[in-house]
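Anyone up for a design puzzle?
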């Protein structure tokens, strides 16, 4: 009933149906308790032993707590509704018992809705098992065990047609940006730019320019380029695009028209220079904590020379993904140890 009511046009959500359902079965239990176990006399009324409305209140709190797994906040809410301190103890007991029973049976409703919508939600602490009961210690593994190797990188100045092809043929949400180092021809990490930002930049054709030398990565030119911005910050910080169909047509036009092959776009002013990076030997457990605490979407992995060697997204740190990748390494280690024992 709660799931059905939350999908209707009535502005009830899940809170009101949960309170209604809990109050309904609590009232039924209260009437049954009063009818079967109540002690009455001719001079006393039906409600003299216990008011069934108290059971309705406790039932509403228990159902709400069992579905949402809220404890302290729900207790405060129910106490504010009743404004009677005498109900504090039974409400606390009902909520805690409902939470324990719910945790034993399944996960909360809101967690199930996250899974239904395929939203990668990270728990406060990673729990990864090897087999059925063996818990994996993530401190023994590094970021390179779960990262996606050889990610697609962009230079500071890229052809419009290449970026359009990239957005059409991939689903990546972010791309590391690299530049040439001062003392060598190595490409080192420079920053990060998201898919949405690239799409917004491609909508401004006045930014396209024909360049002769696209590898002009000197520090002086970088400072000059970053001072000139054609797109405001507010235009880049969008949650989603307004017309996806028009964007698709625009990207397809850039891919089909050969003139955009010789037109370049300068990404320097729009690159996130404060993007977080970690070394490839960084602890996997601390990687998980940093990623979740900072609310990141992409985490670039670099080596000791600041070369981009991988990238970590939220889906790479999900429980099933960690178990799948780490179990492969554990199986390899077990095979090697077995072979070494046989050789000995």
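Challenge accepted. My sequence:
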């Amino acid at each position: 009933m709660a799931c059905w009511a939350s999908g209707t046009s009535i502005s009830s959500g899940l809170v009101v149906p949960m309170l209604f359902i809990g109050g309904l079965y609590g009232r039924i239990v209260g009437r049954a308790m009063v009818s079967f176990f109540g002690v009455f006399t001719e001079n006393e009324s039906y409600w003299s032993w216990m008011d069934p409305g108290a059971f309705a209140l406790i039932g509403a709190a228990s159902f709400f707590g069992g579905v949402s797994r809220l404890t302290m906040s729900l207790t405060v809410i129910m106490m504010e509704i009743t404004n009677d301190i005498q109900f504090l103890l039974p409400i606390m007991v009902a909520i805690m018992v409902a939470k324990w029973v719910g945790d034993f049976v399944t996960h909360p409703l809101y967690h199930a809705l996250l899974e239904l919508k395929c939203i990668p939600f990270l728990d406060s602490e990673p729990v990864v098992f090897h087999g059925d009961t063996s818990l994996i210690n993530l401190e023994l593994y590094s970021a390179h065990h779960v990262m996606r190797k050889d990610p697609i990188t962009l230079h500071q100045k890229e052809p419009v047609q290449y970026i359009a092809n990239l957005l059409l043929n991939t689903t990546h949400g972010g791309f590391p940006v690299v530049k040439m180092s001062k003392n060598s021809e190595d490409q080192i990490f420079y920053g990060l730019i998201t898919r949405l930002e690239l799409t917004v930049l491609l909508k401004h054709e006045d930014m396209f320019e024909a360049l002769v030398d696209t590898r002009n990565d000197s520090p002086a030119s970088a400072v000059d380029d970053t001072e000139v911005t054609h797109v405001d910050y507010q235009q880049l910080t969008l949650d989603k695009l307004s017309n996806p169909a028009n964007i698709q047509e625009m990207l397809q036009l850039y891919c089909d028209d050969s003139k955009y092959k010789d037109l370049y776009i300068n990404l320097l002013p729009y690159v996130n220079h404060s993007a977080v990076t970690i070394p490839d030997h960084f602890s996997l457990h601390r990687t998980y904590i940093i990623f979740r605490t900072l609310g990141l979407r992409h985490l670039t992995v670099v080596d000791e020379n600041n070369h981009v060697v991988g990238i970590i997204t939220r889906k790479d740190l999900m429980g099933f993904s960690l178990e799948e990748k780490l179990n492969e390494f554990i199986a390899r280690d077990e095979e090697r140890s077995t072979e070494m024992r046989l050789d000995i």
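A detail worth pointing out: The first helix runs from residue 2 to 6.
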